[in-house]
Specification:
- This protein has helices at residues 16-26, 36-47, 65-68, and strands at residues 2-4, 11-13.
- By secondary structure, the protein is mostly helical.
- The chain has a two-stranded antiparallel sheet.
- It binds iron/sulfur cluster (SF4).
- The site of iron/sulfur cluster (SF4) has 13 residues, from α2 and α3.
- Iron/sulfur cluster is lined by residues 45-46, 49, 51-52, 58, 60, 65, 68, 76-78, 80.
Length: 81
Amino acid sequence: MKVVCKACQYTSEIHKQTIEKELLRLKNSSTVMADEALYETRLKVCSDCRHLDISGTCMMCGCYVMLRSALKDNKCPKKYW
Ligand code: SF4
């Protein structure tokens, strides 16, 4: 998947495996991770959101929603979750 950062126009290739590997690393820290139910609820909201692009990036903040949703204290930039 090709991704362009909205802030700096940096272009890179990112793979689902890269995101999953990072999530696995973070899952060892229950102090920063959202629980599974919260994570799934957030992803459902994102999947129905008009600001989500085909690469899984939120076009409002530039984050991969799989990562943004996984961290407990993160918020949706549009306050949808
Ligand atoms: S983080 Fe918020 S604005 Fe971005 S895709 Fe998800 S629901 Fe939409």
